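Entry for the shared binder. Reason: the reviewer on the internal report wants the predicted structure included alongside the sequence.
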Amino acid sequence: MIVRAGVVGAGVFGGFHAGKYAADERARLVGIYDPDLERARELAARHGAKSFDTLAALIAACDALTVASPAVHHFEAAAASLASGRHVMVEKPISSSVEEARELIALAAAHGCVLQVGHQERFVFNAMGLFQVPVAPKRIIARRMGPPSDRNLDVSVTLDLMIHDLDLAIALAGAAVTKVEGKVDEGRFGHPDIAEAVLTFENGCVAELGSSRVHHERDRKMRVEYEEGVVDVDFIAKTFENTTPFKLNPGFADTEMARDSLGANVKAFIASVLDGAPVAVPGIAGLRALDAARAVDGARTYGS
């Protein structure tokens, strides 16, 4: 049994997802839709698939779709797919607003569809063994910095970069967020480029996060502090230092899950669609990360 898959969005991440489907023996890449029809044709031709002139036509030809369009268009494509009874993997963020995210979750439940969110870093932490640690951390400190880019300028840095660490912190804490404090800058195009956040959880865990997409270099690290010791993670080097008694996997970087976290996410999505496997990153996880990100975006501006 195979899943007939389509990709909405022929940009960088749409290309990545198309390649994963085309290479997976349990999937058949049916086609691509993008408002830029020429770009859709080029990506489809690269993988021996078809380009579609409308979103509705692609939905009708598929069992499942990845939505990898710009974030402001995630809801429209994901909602149309779910309402048609199609399974959806939507890249992060799940949508632009909390209300839209809730509607997507409701649509997936109403139509019995898988709704999975593209928080790829979860697969790295799974490979490392951090999600198997039996206690919650007391403090999480993370920074996720990158140099200026033309990508994702339609959303804030919180929805572009920080949302990865928001999702990881919420998953590691394993408790409800009770307070969000933050600062954001004005940004270059009306959306913040620099953000700082402090999240307090119901169990007392505190997460201190910082992100910038106008930094001089890429720098992505997280420190997870437990009563029993500390785990320092370098996402770029794919290494960690561990002073806790918890057994983590020192060879995690060589696992397929960590080497190709996007590919692992696609495989997990296919397994949920075809086998009924638990959804690796369910819609509720995307909603929680988005809710926290929007709270940070609503914080006071630097200097105000």
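Summary line for the report: The chain has a mean pLDDT of 95.
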